[in-house]
Amino acid sequence: MALAPRLVDAVNERLEEFLADRATILRSITDDLDPLAAFSKRFLSGGKRFRARFCSLGFDAVRGPDRGNGDRAPSAERYAVVSAAAALEVFHAAALVHDDLIDNSDTRRGAPAAHRVYEAQHRDGGWAGDAGEYGRATAILLGDLLLGWSDELLDEGLAALRDPSASRETRLEFNRMRTEVTVGQYLDILEERAWLTRPEEEQRARAERVVVHKSARYSIEAPLAIGGAIAGGSTPQLEALRAFGLPLGIAFQLRDDLLGVYGDPAVTGKPAGDDLREGKRTVLVAVARERLSPGQRRLLDELLGDPALDADQIRMLQGTIRDCGAVDVVEAEIAANTDRALAALASSDLDPGAARDLADLARAVTRRES
To answer: What cofactor does this one take (predicted)?
Structure first.
């Protein structure tokens, strides 16, 4: 995709500019805040920028061909979409900081998770109190800070738009996304704790509900709709973006679930089988439980969520889930949802060039290894 390098460069520049400005504000208060600014800059320097790319392509898909001025969008609109794409990356960073804290994860992208960074700062500094408690409290506040910054970034971009209806619609899309991912995270926590009291026949549907609300909408559907709204998209255009984005978002998260169990730590930056230690009640686990014998199911339930699982136990669980055919079922679901998304895209009236780029990106996010 020719667009991707230009977009990523623009988003990275916008993030660098924004974070430098916020670091100056923090420094004006006290240099004790330097660790917050430093971690934010480092954490936001990585990532694949999938959400930013979908946001920009949502804009291009609605806006259509050149208006004859030699640029696909006036500078104000392009500033707004780059700012929104950057805001999505900051929002994602906030969600990851909180997610790692909730899951008690040690690493993210091959480096210590935020709460572990601040736990080490406390321990190395010889400070009073409990290092783990300090790390957790600081990570909560860092996530909240990043969440607020994502709003500020979005608003700076929307202030440049000349169309107030586009600005309002974009803000509504962003607010909806924020609500969806927050309640989706709650549903994820709920399923990890309450699954034992739920009817067996409901567990797969409940896992699928988490996929939709925690990840699918916020990872792909919402960024597309936000980009489309900035472009002043009509209701049919935004619906076309959603018809493509939701099934693709489901496929995206199902791939993530497979990587959480079978991903290569050198590529994912997370320990092998991390989702098994965390006790994630994913669609993969729900399908496995449907297909396992009663004895195998009891063993899976007993071990899932044990943070002390060793490498042999992880390999045993990986083999059990694979051998019962659950991986094949999830792979088939990924393929079916990807096909559904591409069919919706092919039948839409969205800009053909942007649609081709979206199809390429769809294949990339569903075949990834990290």
So the answer is: Mg(2+)
- Helices 50-63 and 235-262 cross at an angle (nearest 10°) of 160
Distance, in Å, from the CA atom of 268 to the CA atom of 281, rounded to the nearest integer, reads 20
Q: What are the tens digits of pLDDT across the range 213-249?
A: 999 999 999 999 999 999 999 999 999 999 999 999 9
Q: What is the DSSP string of 337-354?
A: HHHHHHHHHHTS-S-HHH
133 vs 112: CA distance, rounded Å: 16
User: Domain ranges in the chain?
Assistant: 3-358
* Alpha-carbon span 217 to 114, nearest angstrom: 25
Q: For residue 108, list its beta bridge partners.
A: 111
CATH second-level architecture of 3-358?
Orthogonal Bundle (1.10)
| 107: β partners | 112
- Tens of pLDDT along 109-134? 889 999 999 999 999 999 999 999 99
